[in-house]
Design a protein that fits this description.
Distance between the termini: 61 Å
Strand content: 5-15%
Strand order of the largest sheet: 18-25-24-20-21-22-23-19
Length: about 850
């Protein structure tokens, strides 16, 4: 058992022995041209030995593991107790001897930096930077041993414990090694980011520099000079007034010292030194294969690297096999699903869509650079996205305005394939067209359910692959696209012309309330009918509340209902609802997500909310009210139009468009419903196959299939062999992707382009967004990040990141809607208009800027949100 390893003895296989920092320093010391101060690591075996020989630590860890994550007082008390025990524990003699021998080799009278190196620290998945302690300018064996114990104890600072709880790390599985490294007493020191930490641009490096030890910058004692570098050129520099520095103390440790006035505004580095440092950083980045956060020191004219860790907050760049410039637009922001998607879900979605898509960070992107390069493609793209999401349009325009990223194509060259489907030709306003499209889809899904039964093995995978062609045929049926486009174009026509003729903004919002064939709005109203069945039975309501509070998995609780008065009727009502809508869930475009049918408890908060907030018959009344308001708005508008010059002609044309939008607008939600219905049939069959693979020992768990792409799963089913390491690797990668926020637009340089609302009509302090459903409402904000935990009361305003169809049951209770992601024709907007809810979408950081319980006012006509207090 080795208690000490020198840097030259360490490689990546020693991660469990010396932690991330130790491995990185050892790797750094072997990179040609990189100077790393000499040193060694006290291994995790030493830490493990001390914990094993101190039973009181183990008992305290047991108590810490049982503390609730939000019990800050208990965490603070227990953490302090554990630290005190570790700091005062006797150092085992053989451990102390091993450390003493290493000090003798490296210079027993020298000064050292003693730094923690936890086994979960500085890994690609999560940077623990600053979560444990470091001690500088420590000399002598006794002091080194004391500070090694202090580093061990720093594993249990309140901040480090809270960080592990938040990121899912087990306290017992995180071990502590300690780096002991020769001190460098620098003239200047600081931090180098090999990618821009603000924009994420991988081609721009940022250097921060100050006098003395780098701890002055890291601790926030002073602001340093800041340089940005691109292509070996310093492109910006901001020289700070550096009035303080951290220096080594003659008695050991460090001290805060003033900087003489003549040096305070002098640059800590020359431009030549900055460029040389960035070149060094690029060499380190190339070695580790990803952008780095590097701590450096400058002594004389020589740079020393004292630490390097991955920058874990950067969103990955979609892979490309060329060196061209690319502009990637997020698919998730169009689909109202910005969460990470597992590999099976990514591959199935790519098999479903006609456009080439690129993966990064568990999300999908479309490269629009070819469209931006042509005048026609540019106009079409900006026009379409301008209506849907002004933030994306503004970001694309910002790229074009630079003039150096997109190379224009010659006149007449249209670039790549256009967005959308084939050009829509006019169709007659005939409701029978919609009913026929729905009938065909329903019949096709029924045939799928019938024919997939009994299939298994390679036959099942081949059958699903063949059926995806049928799914695509239905999704991209030219007739279906014509209907969708006809409804959208009629709504645009009404909004444009009625604003021009009457000054009536967003008139189509009211005119499209309670339209026929909107399967998603019907789904929300149907849950009101379920509540009507449950409401009269107090025992059933109380039982369902207990089940909701417990968060039970599976649907076993439904059969338990039959023992209660009214329970059988309640069970049948819920099951009937699931038979029609149970394939839906949050993030439903990812086939791997848990469906309502698989976990019906997800619906209970919405059902119980409906029981509390509505009277019997609310669904019918709600629909009829929307219909009355729509007809009244139609009558009013036509009457006002007839009073205008050429009023009869304008009224007749408007009437034709109103009939058209009401005939076709509801259908827009149906194709996705049909797609998700098929996905659920596929999923049920694939999980049965996964169960067979588990029973035969091929897979460890059924959900292993979620971390295989469809073609990989076909191979596993065919061969009976799988790479367990690949599944483990992808599970770990998915956990890191879940913590990332995808940008609307990212370039091939890695730069996340942030669009802006360029408006002057928003009151000071208000949050701008896109108006998608007219009206103004004031109420209590309910910030909801998980539909299964939503508790809305009548009059509440729903504030969330995004909504897809699974959120519709909450819309019947909400008085208004605010989302961070969304567009004019995305789900939340369509259903908000259908239900008559004022709504503003695309409100950046809404869930962080608006606090749960605050009173807010939503201006759905003008597109902004006021926080009232």
């Amino acid at each position: 058992m080795a208690y000490v390893l020198d840097f030259e003895q360490i490689d990546s296989a020693n991660i469990a022995d010396v932690g991330g920092k130790g491995v990185h320093l050892a790797e750094l010391s072997r990179i040609d041209g990189v100077h790393v101060p000499d040193g060694f690591c006290v291994t995790t075996d030493a830490f493990r030995r001390v914990v094993a020989e101190t039973p009181s630590i183990d008992a305290r860890l047991d108590r810490l593991s049982r503390v609730e994550p939000d019990d800050h007082a208990a965490i603070r008390t227990l953490s302090a107790d554990i630290r005190q025990v570790i700091e005062n524990v006797p150092m085992p003699g053989d451990v102390a001897a091993a450390i003493g021998e290493s000090l003798a080799r490296h210079g027993e009278h020298a000064s050292y930096a003693v730094r923690s190196s936890a086994t979960a620290e500085d890994l690609p998945a999560a940077s623990f930077a600053g979560q444990q302690d470091s001690y500088l300018n420590i000399a002598g064996l006794a002091e080194i041993l004391r500070h090694v114990r202090r580093c061990w104890a720093s594993l249990f600072t309140e901040r480090a414990v809270a960080y592990r709880r938040r990121n899912g790390f087990d306290h017992r599985k995180v071990r502590m090694a300690v780096v002991v490294q020769r001190m460098v007493f620098p003239d200047a020191a600081g931090v180098l980011f090999t990618a821009d930490p603000v924009t994420s641009n991988r081609k721009i490096a940022t250097v921060e520099a100050g006098w003395g030890l780098g701890e002055a910058l890291v601790s926030g004692l002073v602001s340093g000079d800041v340089y940005t570098v691109r292509d070996d050129q310093v492109v910006t520099r901001a020289i700070a007034a550096k009035s303080r520095s951290v220096q080594a103390s003659p008695d050991g440790g460090t001290r805060d010292a003033p900087v003489e006035p003549g040096r305070q505004t002098r640059p800590a580095l020359t431009d030549a030194q900055v460029v040389r440092l960035v070149r060094l950083g690029r060499r380190i980045e190339a070695h580790f294969g990803r952008p780095q956060d590097i701590e450096w020191c400058l002594t004389g004219d020589e740079f020393h690297i004292v630490q390097s860790r991955p920058i874990t907050t950067l969103f990955p760049i979609p892979a490309s096999d060329d060196r061209d410039n690319h502009v990637y637009v997020s698919v998730g922001h169009q689909q109202m699903m910005t969460d990470a998607i597992k590999p099976l879900g990514l591959s199935l979605w790519q098999m479903t869509t006609p456009r080439p898509m690129h993966e990064a960070g568990g999300r999908l992107f479309v490269d629009v650079a070819p469209l931006l390069a042509s005048a026609a493609g540019r106009a079409q793209l900006l026009g379409t996205l301008g209506k849907s999401d002004p933030l994306i349009r503004d970001a694309l325009q910002a790229i074009l305005d630079r003039g150096d990223f997109i190379r224009p194509l010659p006149e007449g060259d249209s670039g790549a394939m256009p967005i959308g489907g084939p050009a829509a030709t006019p169709i007659e306003t005939d409701p029978a067209i919609v009913t026929e499209l729905i009938r065909r889809n329903e019949e096709s899904v029924a045939i799928l359910r019938r024919e997939i039964r009994g299939r298994s093995g390679p036959e099942l995978l081949d059958f699903i692959l063949a059926d995806i062609a049928e799914l695509k045929r239905l999704l991209f049926d030219p007739r279906s696209i014509q209907v969708i486009m006809a409804g959208m174009e009629a709504a645009w026509w009404l909004n444009d012309h009625l604003d021009e003729w009457l000054g009536e903004k967003n008139a189509a919002d009211v005119l499209t309330q309670s339209v026929p064939h909107n399967v998603t709005s019907e789904m929300g109203l149907a849950l009101l009918d379920v509540a009507d069945v449950i409401r009269p039975h107090a025992d059933v309501v109380a039982f369902l509340q207990r089940v909701a509070d417990e968060g039970r998995d599976g649907d076993g609780f439904l059969d338990e209902l039959t023992g209660l008065p009214g329970g059988r009727e309640a069970r049948d009502a819920i099951r009937g609802y699931l038979d029609t809508y149970g394939m839906r869930c949050t993030g439903e475009i990812d086939i791997t997500r848990t469906r309502w049918s698989e976990r019906p408890v997800t619906l209970l908060p919405a059902i119980l909310g409906n029981v509390r907030n509505f009277e019997p018959g609310a669904a019918k009344r709600r629909f009829e009210q929307g219909l009355r308001e729509s007809r009244e708005k139609e009558r009013e508008l036509l009457e006002r139009l007839r009073a205008l010059p050429d009023g009869e002609g304008k009224a007749a044309e408007t009437k034709r468009m109103i009939d058209r939008v009401r005939t076709f607008a509801g259908y827009r939600e149906y194709p996705k419903y049909g797609m998700v219905s098929r996905y659920f049939v596929y999923k049920q069959a694939l999980l049965e196959e996964a169960g067979r693979l588990v029973r035969s020992g091929v897979l460890h768990a059924r959900d292993d299939i979620y971390f295989l792409r469809f073609e990989e799963l076909r191979d596993v089913v065919r061969t009976g062999h799988v790479d367990p390491g690949l599944i483990r690797e992808r599970r770990e990668a998915f956990r890191t992707y879940e913590a990332l926020t995808p940008p609307r637009i990212i370039t091939s340089d890695g730069e996340a382009i942030i669009g802006e609302y360029r408006r002057d009509d928003v009151p000071p302090g208000a949050l701008p967004g896109l108006p998608v459903s007219a009206g103004t409402v004031e109420g209590r904000a309910r910030v909801v990040l998980d539909m299964a935990r939503a508790e809305l009361e009548a009059g509440d305003i729903l504030v969330t990141t995004y909504t897809d169809p699974s959120w519709t049951p909450l819309f019947v209770t909400a008085a208004g809607l605010v989302t961070e992601v969304g567009g004019l024709m995305t789900h939340g907007a369509v259903i908000a208009r259908e239900y008559g809810l004022p709504a503003v979408v695309g409100v950046e950081r809404a869930t962080r800027l608006i606090r749960d319980g605050q009173r807010i006012r939503v201006h759905g006509t003008d597109g902004y949100v006021e926080i009232l207090g």
